[in-house]
């Protein structure tokens, strides 16, 4: 006779086994669905319905195993083969995958990018339109993917670091909507070949130093497109190459695990305790997932049969993860053959239904627009003088197009309208023109909008609060203005963090943070290694999680090291997620005049052309800089603030409302009124201009001096052209190379503002030399514009 407790144990055991069996079969179903999605998606590209495809086939089982331990609050910072992760975590579904493949601009269909990114680029929103952070601690989160290889690594460091800060910084404890006491992990995924990128190594080193909850999964399929791993990685293994980073007792570093991408049970057995350790101890880890396959090759742009041997292809077929999982299920009596066949058939149906639904949602509104166009174009045939044959041919061609695109409709309408300009007053032509204008505006909004935040999240909508000064203003050094400002800021805003090289203990190289680490703590104001790239990534990840980081690049010349994540990730984020994600990162640096090739840079042309989507602030002094920081911290947009390197010890008046006054972005300030010539500049050049203008005034030439204050945005109210209407002469001057910042300002005023209409003489640009600045005071004099240059050029203009 079976005892009651033994019976209960047997029942519990059977129930546990049944739950386990259901979970395994559900995982197999998901693996099959993801595989079918990849197979169908490739066909859609090859038949022309989509432009390009890159898929996660061969990685399904490993990604499902990883996703089992992905919890609410966690973040994914991955790459473009993570479709199974997205499906397994619920971040995406197959229909959304196909909508993105078709570039559907409707965010209800492609919520990750609104048709702006290619397939498998996933993103989850982090803030609403009213400026409120979403409950990230309760969500499964994904940072917006990028195509640049290893570009996801720097921000992964910041996403993981945020968990450490939420756990360690007392002032953040009540922000439970953003974090559950720092228990969140950042799951970073990367292809094995991309571990050759410096981004990977710098991030791994920083993670090992900082000890943050970062789980890095390397999907190793043995190739980088066609290049075998032996040409990519020392010792032919990233885990072996990183062995010196392995954490041991009494050291930092990270744990290293080796997994087989086809071994479902083995991966789950390793991952469960490993992920738990990361979550509890914040020890980072590398998971080298080996023996991954790529059944369809790298992408739709080529065939892997061109570079893989017959033996390799045969091995990949034998070790296909889905096939291996299927065999394991049967060997362990978790299912019978008939049940697996049903699962596989259902997976095909699921993928086909998703493809069909996504295509119908994409094509139906376009076909409706085709009919609207035809209904409006046909009456043009009856207009006296119309090119009937051309109109009819245009309509026939569009009707014959089985898969029309929006551009086809617009091109058809434009081609008819341009040939009937002489009939533009006819009602039929006017109706077609109105349709074209409306449709074009609608589609431009679909494809050209949201480079920046809007509404309350926009820095352009922050109320202007002028600086106020006492009856007898306190006059102090510029760096002391910033020091007092940052002290007040960190006292009153617990979300603000500052970090960079020499920022902490010594208070930055120009003393803006002097003594503040001791007062506010080493987590709030921190030193970093010399690693500009991952300093930017550190700030990006923190900003994505609701903190307000001020990430410092010590000198503007070294921004090049950190420019890639700022350009590819931050600057494009609002645009490529169609306004779903916000990254309110502030990058603080210093530049312009000082001494030497790498400490006096002003590469503004490079910056403004690579950072469209960020604000670029160029304050002439430290009071202006403080006001710009105030403005930015009241909005939710990223910005670069370039303080004047030679201005820290110049005397300035201290505002009494230091923490509340704001400097509006995109609004130039007229520093001096004048009648004869307008001089436009910014930053350290304002003092050079003022010196030259003093001489010109002695010579009877009246100059109007304008400080643009920000280059992005630039003079949104057209203040400069209003000055030009008065003076009819204009000079643009800065410290960039010829054709750089001055050419940009020239184009903005002459073309965008129509300034050419008000010129009496040729406009001028005065920049630095084409070479890097030479060292020493004489080097500065001959490399950069000086007061004598200002006088000479203005006098030439007056004599013209």
Kindly report the spatial arrangement of strands forming the biggest sheet. 11-10-12-13-15-14-20
What distance lies between the first and last C-alpha atoms, to the nearest angstrom?
A: 115 Å
Shape: globular
Structural class: alpha/beta
Point out poorly predicted stretches: none
User: How many domains comprise the coordinates?
Assistant: 4
Oligomeric state of shown chains: single chain
Helix fraction, binned, reads: 40-55%
CATH class of the largest domain: Alpha Beta
Largest sheet: 7 strands, mixed
CATH topology grouping of the largest domain: Rossmann fold
Radius of gyration: 30 Å
Work out the strand percent.
5-15%
Average pLDDT metric:
95
What's the architecture of the largest domain in CATH terms?
3-Layer(aba) Sandwich
The strand count comes to: 22
Count of DSSP H/I helices: 25
At the fourth level of CATH, the homologous superfamily of the largest domain is Thiamin diphosphate (ThDP)-binding fold, Pyr/PP domains
GO molecular function: branched-chain 2-oxo acid dehydrogenase activity
Pfam family, one: Transket_pyr
Protein name: 3-methyl-2-oxobutanoate dehydrogenase (2-methylpropanoyl-transferring)
GO biological process, one term: branched-chain amino acid catabolic process
Note down, in words, how this protein is organized.
E1 component of the 2-oxoglutarate dehydrogenase (OGDH) complex which catalyzes the decarboxylation of 2-oxoglutarate, the first step in the conversion of 2-oxoglutarate to succinyl-CoA and CO(2). This is 3-methyl-2-oxobutanoate dehydrogenase (2-methylpropanoyl-transferring). One of its GO terms (molecular function) is branched-chain 2-oxo acid dehydrogenase activity. Its cofactor is thiamine diphosphate. Its EC number is 1.2.4.4. By secondary structure, the protein is an alpha/beta fold. It folds into 4 domains: 17-124 and 133-335, Rossmann fold (3-Layer(aba) Sandwich), CATH 3.40.50.970; 364-448, no CATH class; 455-653, 3-Layer(aba) Sandwich (Rossmann fold); 669-799, Rossmann fold, CATH 3.40.50.920. The chain contains 25 helices and 22 strands. A 7-stranded mixed beta sheet has the order 11-10-12-13-15-14-20, with helices on both faces. It has a 6-stranded parallel beta sheet with strand order 2-1-3-4-8-7, with helices on both faces. α4 crosses α11 (337-377), α12 packs antiparallel against α13 (406-418) and α13 packs antiparallel against α14 (427-448). It is globular, with a radius of gyration of 30 Å. The protein starts with a helix and ends with a helix.
């Amino acid at each position: 006779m079976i005892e009651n407790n033994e019976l209960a144990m047997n029942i519990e055991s059977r129930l546990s086994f049944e739950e386990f069996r259901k979970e395994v079969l559900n995982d197999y179903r998901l693996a099959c669905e993801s595989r079918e999605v990849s197979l169908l998606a490739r066909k859609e590209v090859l038949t022309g319905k989509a432009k390009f495809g890159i898929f996660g086939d061969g990685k399904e089982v490993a990604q499902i195993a990883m996703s089992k331990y992905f919890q609410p609050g966690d973040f994914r910072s991955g790459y473009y083969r993570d479709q199974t992760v997205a499906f397994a975590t619920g971040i995406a579904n197959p229909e959304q995958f196909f909508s993105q493949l078709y570039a559907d601009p409707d965010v209800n269909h492609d919520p990750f990018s609104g048709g702006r990114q290619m397939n498998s680029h996933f993103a989850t929103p982090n803030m609403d339109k009213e400026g409120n952070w979403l409950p990230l601690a309760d969500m499964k989160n994904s940072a917006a993917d990028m195509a640049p290889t290893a570009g996801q690594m720097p921000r992964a460091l910041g996403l993981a670091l945020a968990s450490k800060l939420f756990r360690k910084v007392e002032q953040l404890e009540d922000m439970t909507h953003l974090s559950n006491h720092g228990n969140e992990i950042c799951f970073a995924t990367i292809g094995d070949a991309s571990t050759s990128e410096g981004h990977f190594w710098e991030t791994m080193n920083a993670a090992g130093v900082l000890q943050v909850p970062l789980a890095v999964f390397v999907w190793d399929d043995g190739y980088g497109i066609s290049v075998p791993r032996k040409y990519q990685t020392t010792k032919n293994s990233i885990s072996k190459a990183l062995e010196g980073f392995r954490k041991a007792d009494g050291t930092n570093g990270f744990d290293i695990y080796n997994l087989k991408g086809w071994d479902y049970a083995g991966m789950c057995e390793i991952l469960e305790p490993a992920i738990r350790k990361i979550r509890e101890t914040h020890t980072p880890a590398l998971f080298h997932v080996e023996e991954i396959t790529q059944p369809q090759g790298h992408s739709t742009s080529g065939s892997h049969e061109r570079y893989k041997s017959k033996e390799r292809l045969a091995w990949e077929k034998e070790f296909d993860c889905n096939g291996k999982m299927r065999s394991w299920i049967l060997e362990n009596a978790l299912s019978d053959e008939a049940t697996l066949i049903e699962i596989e058939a259902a997976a095909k149906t699921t993928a086909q239904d998703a493809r069909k639904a996504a295509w119908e949602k994409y094509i139906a509104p376009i076909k409706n627009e085709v009919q609207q166009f035809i209904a409006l174009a046909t009456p043009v045939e009856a207009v006296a003088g119309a090119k009937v044959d051309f109109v009819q041919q245009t309509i026939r061609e569009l009707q014959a197009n089985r898969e029309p695109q929006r551009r086809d409709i617009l091109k058809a309408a434009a081609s008819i309208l341009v040939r009937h300009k002489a009939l533009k007053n006819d009602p039929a032509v006017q109706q077609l023109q109105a349709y074209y204008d409306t449709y074009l505006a609608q589609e431009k909004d679909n494809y050209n909008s949201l480079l920046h935040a809007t509404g309350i999240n926009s820095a352009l909508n922050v109320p202007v609060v002028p600086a106020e000064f006492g009856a007898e203003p306190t006059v102090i050094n510029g760096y002391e203005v910033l020091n007092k400002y940052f002290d007040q800021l960190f006292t009153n805003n617990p979300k603000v963090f500052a970090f960079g090289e020499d920022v902490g203990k010594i208070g930055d190289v120009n003393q803006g943070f002097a003594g503040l680490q001791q007062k506010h703590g080493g987590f709030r104001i921190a030193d970093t290694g010399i690693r500009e790239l991952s300093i930017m990534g550190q700030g990006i990840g923190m900003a994505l999680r609701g903190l307000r980081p001020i990430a410092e690049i010590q000198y503007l010349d070294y921004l090049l090291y950190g420019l890639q994540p700022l350009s590819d990730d931050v600057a494009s984020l609002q645009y490529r997620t169609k306004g779903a994600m916000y990254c309110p990162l502030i990058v603080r640096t210093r530049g312009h005049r000082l001494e030497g090739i790498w400490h006096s840079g002003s590469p503004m042309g490079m910056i403004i052309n690579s950072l469209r989507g960020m604000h670029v602030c160029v304050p002439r002094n430290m009071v202006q800089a403080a006001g710009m920081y105030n403005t930015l911290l009241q909005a939710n947009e990223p910005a670069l603030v370039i303080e004047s390197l030679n201005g820290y010890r110049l005397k300035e008046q201290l505002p009494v409302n230091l923490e509340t006054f704001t400097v509006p972005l995109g609004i130039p300030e007229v520093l001096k009124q004048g009648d004869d010539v307008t001089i436009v500049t910014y930053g350290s050049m304002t003092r050079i201009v003022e010196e030259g203008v003093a001489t010109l005034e002695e010579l009877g030439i009246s100059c109007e001096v304008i400080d643009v204050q920000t280059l992005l945005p630039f003079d949104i109210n057209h203040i400069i052209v209003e000055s030009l209407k008065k003076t009819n002469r204009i000079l643009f001057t800065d410290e960039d190379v010829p054709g750089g910042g001055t050419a940009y300002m020239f184009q903005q005023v002459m073309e965008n503002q129509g300034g050419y209409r008000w010129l009496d003489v040729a406009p001028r640009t005065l920049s630095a030399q084409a070479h890097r600045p030479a060292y020493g005071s004489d080097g500065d004099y001959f490399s950069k514009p000086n007061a004598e240059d200002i006088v000479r050029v203005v006098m030439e203009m007056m004599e013209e």
